[in-house]
Amino acid sequence: MSIDLSLDRIRKLLAHLPPYSRPTIHVAGTNGKGSVCALVSSILSASSPPFVVGRFNSPHLVSVLDCICVANQPVSAEVYSTARQEVERIDRENDVGASNFELLACTALFIFERAAVDIVVLEVGMGGRLDATNAVPDECILVSALAAVDLDHQAFLGNTVEAIAREKAAIARNGKPFVIGPQVHPQVVDVARQIATVAGATVVPPAAVTLAEGSDERGGREFGDMALSGAPPPRAVKVSMAYFDEPVLAALPLHGEHQLANLEIAAGIISALVAHPACQRLDHRLQARITPAAVARGIEKTRWPGRLSYNTFTLPSQPSNGRQNAQVTVLADGAHNPASATALADYLSDLLARSPGRPLALTYVLGLSHSPPKTPAQTLGPLFALSERLPQGCQVRIGAALLRFTPPEGMPWVRSVPPSEMRAAIESLVPDPTSGLELWSPSAETAAGADNAVDIFEQALCWAAERQGDREDALVVVAGSLYLVADFYRLLDRLGQAQGIWGAN
Mutual orientation of helices 161-169 and 186-199 as an angle, nearest 10°? Predict the structure, then answer.
């Protein structure tokens, strides 16, 4: 099934549904837009009294239900099914021929309208200009924002960051604030400003976020030293927003230096929401409800699974092979392109440089989507250059389990890269036979004996646990695709250890 980007079909669908009227915050970008949406949603939900927030993110993680949230909870199967059936009926009766993503986006908007949520936080699926979410009427948009832009989906969006930025910045609306976030590629800012100006939008700056005194970009010294046996503590941050006289002090639970930039965008959105004249039509006493204390609470309560998310869990014993209960610390991150893989490698480099003197068994569990012209070597390169960046004396043994993931529901065009292709890419990246690199992938016999991808994922984690020596620390990093991260969460759920993944939002 091919992807045909257009707004014609979803506009036709929406014309046959109750008019969409929810005040909406719209966020585009290559990397970070989901984190921005999670932060904004959490801040609005922490206001006093709280806003009832509808949030749409894509792709879904474990289930299609978790991409549509109302009041910080995934919608029920009944609510989703009822709305989806109505949208599909309209699609059939009017011969619209909408794509699966268009049906999903329309279902989300229909649910939010029925629930009469106060504010919708809407993440663009791919691109922006022709993305289904861009069918939301101008009068509904409160604020639009652009997170980090990089190369991805070139077959649909263009082969340069400038071309991709033009597509993504096209969500800017006439007379409405448009927040341009920090960019790795400076030319993105110039292109986005030009597109926003032509659209008649008001370009507003993001907030300024710095680490509070006594903290550092890797974990917050005042919270105590971090060990590899669990998640590092939140970082103390200072958020300077145009609307507030004094900086907001908060504890940011999202890990990685890039999350400081995402918080700048989120706080910029909130500041524009409170201060920009175009947002004042909302009769919600915004200034009274969105206070510095509410912003701090919202930041601290933000949860965004699968993005530098830590889980410590226990693999059950297996008497058949003599394996005892094994406690495993997993860092799950949906890094799926060279830019996000670089961000993950940066985080790991900082983390390992500060780890105790004991040797470390570092095991990647990797799965990739087939997405040319992006190659496996381009995405995996930053992860396997990690050893070159570590300080002298830092002893790290690297291994990698190479897997396929469960095909995502309703997305037949998404395909896993075969483990053999990932193996060839890694061997080209690490050609030195004396490197000590260990690779694991399921044998044909193992794959045939497994009921599903989650079973094989568990075997990969068992292999990772067995790699740890008696005098070593261990860390498992699940990366390459959110679809693979979803298999990890499905395994946790099957083991009865999935509590706390979603947190407050």
Answer: 30
Whole-angstrom distance, CA of residue 62 vs CA of residue 57: 12
Which residues are CB-contacts of 491 (< 8 A; sequence separation ≥ 6)?
454, 457, 458, 461
Tens-digit pLDDT profile for residues 67-109: 999 998 999 999 999 999 999 999 999 999 999 999 999 999 9
| Cα angle 110, 111, 115; round to 5 | 120
The pTM assigned to this predicted structure is: 0.88
Q: How far apart are CA 290 and CA 44, in angstroms?
A: 7
Q: How far apart are CA 183 and CA 30, in angstroms?
A: 11
Nearby residues of 374 by Cβ (< 8 Å), 6 or more positions away: 151, 152, 154, 337, 338
Per DSSP, what are the bridge partners of residue 312?
329
Please calculate the CA angle 351-356-357 and round it to the nearest 5 degrees.
Answer: 120
CB 436 within 8 A of CB 289: no
Could you tell me if 355 and 226 are in contact, meaning their C-beta atoms sit under 8 angstroms apart?
A: no
What is the number of alpha carbons within 13 Å of residue 270 lying toward its C-beta? Answer: 37
Q: Which residue reads 């990093």 in tokens?
A: 477
